[in-house]
Amino acid sequence: MKDNLDPLVRQAKIDHAGIISKGSLQYSVFFLFGITIISVICRFRVRGTNRKQLAMADYLAILAVVSAIISTAILFYNLPKMYLLEAANRRHVLLTDSEIGPLLGLVNWTQTLIPMLWIAIFSIKFSFLFSFHGLISNPSIQVRSYFWGVAGFTIICWIFQSLYMAVACPHVDGEARSCACK
User: Fold this and answer.
1) Which of 10, 25, 138, 143 has a Cα at 20 to 30 A from 96?
2) pLDDT at residue 161, rounded to an integer
3) For residue 105, what is the DSSP state?
C-alpha cells in the first residue's frame, strides 16, 4: 500500500478507521465523563446538606464513579491501539513489526475494560434500586412485586454480563491472544 510510506496520511487513515473518528470519540467520552463527575459531585453536595451519613446507594455511586474513572483511563490509554487495529482490519494500513506486539496485548486490556464498564453501569442501577427501595415499603403488593422483579432481573443481567468475558475467552495473559483470532 502506497499510503503506508507517508506518515501523515497513514495516521489520518488510522484516526478515521472507526465508525467515529478518534478525535470525535475522545471529545465525546471526555464530555460525558465530565458530566458524570459533575453529577456525582452535585449528588453528594445535595446529600451532604440533607443527610450527613452515607447510605448504600451512595457507596454504590462511589463504586460506579471509581469504575468509570478506571474505564476511561484504560480506554484513553488503549485508544491508539484500538484504532490501529481497526485500520488494519479494514485494510487501510499495513502493520509494522513493532506494532504487532502491543496489539496482541490489547485483548488483555479489553478483558479489563469491559467488566469495569459493566461494574459502573450496574453499580448505578443498584444505587437507584437502593434509593427507591424505601419508597415501596407501603404501596400495593403489585408495586412491590414489580420492584423485586426488576431487582431480580437486574441481578441476573449483571451475573450474565460478568460471566460473558470469561465464557467468551477463558484464557488469560499470552493465551488470551488466541481468543482474538477466532
Assistant:
1) 25
2) 83
3) T
Output the CA–CA distances (angstroms, integers) from residue 92 to 4, 13, 30, 132, 163, in the order listed.
Answer: 9, 6, 27, 50, 34
Q: Is the dihedral of CA 151, 74, 62, 28 positive or negative?
A: negative
Cα dihedral sign, 79-85-86-92: positive
What's the average pLDDT block by block, 10 residues per block, for the chain (182 residues)?
68 86 94 94 83 84 95 94 90 85 83 88 90 77 86 89 74 62 50
pTM of this structure? 0.80
Q: How far apart are CA 18 and CA 29, in angstroms?
A: 15
- Cβ burial of 67 (10 Å; 0-12, 13-18, 19+) is buried
Residues 6+ apart with CB under 8 A from 1: 93, 94
Can you give the residue range of the structural domain that contains 105?
2-180
CA distance 158 to 34: 25
Tally the domains of the chain.
Answer: 1
